[in-house]
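Hi R.,

Here's the chain you asked about this morning:
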Amino acid sequence: MKASITTTALIWLCNLTIIITALFVAHNIYRSTQGFNPFDMDSDEMKSVSSITTASPTIFGSTYYYHSVYDSENDSRTEYFYFVPGNMEYKFDIVSAPRVTAQLLDEELSKTDWLGNRRFSVFADSAEVPLILAKPGFEIEDGETLNRMFRIGSISIIGYLIYIIVLIWFIRRFVLGLKTNSFFTQKNVFNLKITSLMVLVAPFLDYLWFLIIEQLPETLLSIEGASLYRSAGYTFKIEMLLAGLILIVISTAFEHAVKLQKEQELTI
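And here is the predicted structure, written out as tokens:
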């Protein structure tokens, strides 16, 4: 049976998705082995500037900050390490919002990695801007703790990407069944059932992974003049659960169709 253009396109789309996701897995494995290594502060171009670098390696939106401040009078440098939860955000009223001094990004000194992700940012000229939304930062003891949290975050992304690869692989196997003359087979039932079960359990695994990986403060903060815009915590992905249930129903109906086809073949 000759495959249609749509079937062929779906197969190639699955192949392309698997390849791209595998490349991201390799990239995050490399990141986890390297650790959070902002930049060389002993280089000539960095000796006399105050710089900041950020990284967001977890799938929950948390950010890790390394901030280095250079004191030209004493010729010394002070380092700060912060963790910012992804789901904790406060909103200021537009009228009473505090104005803060913000520095403009220096594109020449700032650098990016081979994927275009900004490894560190250097800021120069400053201007005053209103602070509307703000995420509090929680200070981390030292660079080793930051590095450990960074590696755990990178591992969390690797786990999710591998899960996606396995899911797409079973979808690809199911789509490949469209190229055969006998589409209603137990093999295709198996592929569809595995796909539906993976989608169904995904939100539960996501929540479990959140409890293991995400490191949130135990209490919320009360900030003068600001209200809690988003709270730190987990939002259960109900849409994934519903999608999984729908796929379970479809796979059950598909299995029933296979049984009816076999009964008809025996009758004939």
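One quick note: Strands lie at 51-55, 63-71, 76-84, 89-92, 99-105, 111-112, 118-130, 133-134, 138-139, 226-230.

Cheers,
M.
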